[in-house]
Amino acid sequence: MEASTANVFEALPDEVKQGVADLGWKEPMPVQALAIPALQRGVDLIVQARTGSGKTGAFGLPIVCAVDPALAAPQALVMAPTRELAVANAPAARGSAFTVPRVLDDEADG
Questions:
Q1: Burial of 61 (0-12, 13-18, 19+ CB in 10 A)
Q2: 67-76 pLDDT per residue, tens
Q3: For residue 2, is it within any domain?
Q4: pLDDT tens digit string along 9-46?
Q5: How far apart are CA 8 and CA 16, in angstroms?
Q6: Is residue 34 situated within a structural domain?
Q7: How far is CA 105 from CA 4, 58, 71, 108, in A?
Q8: Mean pLDDT of 44-65
């Protein structure tokens, strides 16, 4: 499957686009170009790709877009196979979400 040449970041809400810009992401990685539109359509995905390929953004951005900040209840659960991987993924998730109020619960850290 070929990644689309369209920049999927352009279709994101403004608050999330700002988070993407703050991370310094200008163009989606191939895994993001394929996964983000599919996840936004509700498709279930399993992705296998190298470290640094953009998987965290590929899964995290659609989650951030789907969360309703006005709803003060859990809306998404991100699971990682190890604590180390969870800790490594958290900064990217925060970077894409920090401009969206109450998306992340800092009390769940640790």
A1: buried
A2: 887 888 888 8
A3: no
A4: 998 888 888 888 888 888 999 999 999 999 999 999 98
A5: 12
A6: yes
A7: 33, 20, 13, 6
A8: 88
Q: How far apart are CA 87 and CA 110, in angstroms?
A: 9
Q: What is the residue whose two structure tokens read 């640094």?
A: 52
Residues 6+ apart with CB under 8 A from 23: 57, 92, 95, 96
- Helical residues (DSSP H) of the chain, grouped into ranges: 14-23, 30-40, 55-66, 83-97
Q: Rounded CA gap, 97 and 64, in Å? A: 6
Structural domain of residue 34, as residue ranges?
A: 8-108
Distance, in Å, from the CA atom of 90 to the CA atom of 8, rounded to the nearest integer, reads 22
